[in-house]
Specification:
Layout: H1 2-124, H2 129-138, H3 140-166, H4 169-176
Length: 177
């Protein structure tokens, strides 16, 4: 009986140790279960953050592509504006050349008008008429040349007058264009 009591005591001791061990395992399981739940929550939050980051990244890519297209359009516009600037600069240079040409042409025109006016006045009011008569008697060849020059001057004057009468202001402006 003693043996039986001892065995019973050993069994009860083993049972208590087992109960203790089971209790420790249950506590460990509960602790691990809590850790697992926290880890699952953290994982869920991490997955949510990953989705948010992915959505944000996709929006960023879309925004980046849009800005890239805008940049390309701006580069094209800058290129176009530079070409336009170059054309305008050439046009300005051309305009300066045309203005100087107009100036010189107007100056030449004024000179020619003055010459015509002088020739007209000389024809209307000839100077030294008697000198030519003296020349006729002394040097007939020279006198003949002077008469031809006078005749040619008269023709030039009449042709210039006809030319100025035919040139209307509209035809002059067309020639400038």
């Amino acid at each position: 009986m003693n043996n039986l009591n001892k065995m019973m005591g050993d069994i009860e001791e083993k049972k208590r140790n087992m109960d203790k061990y089971i209790h420790q395992l249950l506590n460990e399981r509960n602790i691990l279960g809590g850790k697992l739940m926290r880890s699952e929550k953290v994982l869920a939050l991490t997955n949510d953050k990953a989705r948010i980051y992915e959505v944000t990244l996709n929006k960023g890519k879309i925004w980046y592509n849009r800005k890239l297209k805008e940049l390309q359009l701006l580069k094209l516009e800058v290129k176009h504006l530079r070409q336009e600037k170059s054309l305008m600069k050439k046009s300005m240079d051309n305009t300066a050349n045309i203005r100087s040409e107009i100036f010189y042409l107007q100056r030449d025109l004024c000179r020619e008008k003055v010459k015509c006016r002088i020739l007209e006045e000389e024809l209307q009011n000839p100077l030294n008429v008697h000198r030519w008569r003296k020349l006729e008697a002394t040097d007939p060849d020279r006198y003949e040349l002077i008469q031809k020059v006078s005749l040619l001057q008269k023709r030039i004057v009449t042709q210039n007058q006809k030319h100025y009468q035919n040139d209307s202001p509209s035809s002059v402006s067309r020639q400038r264009n």
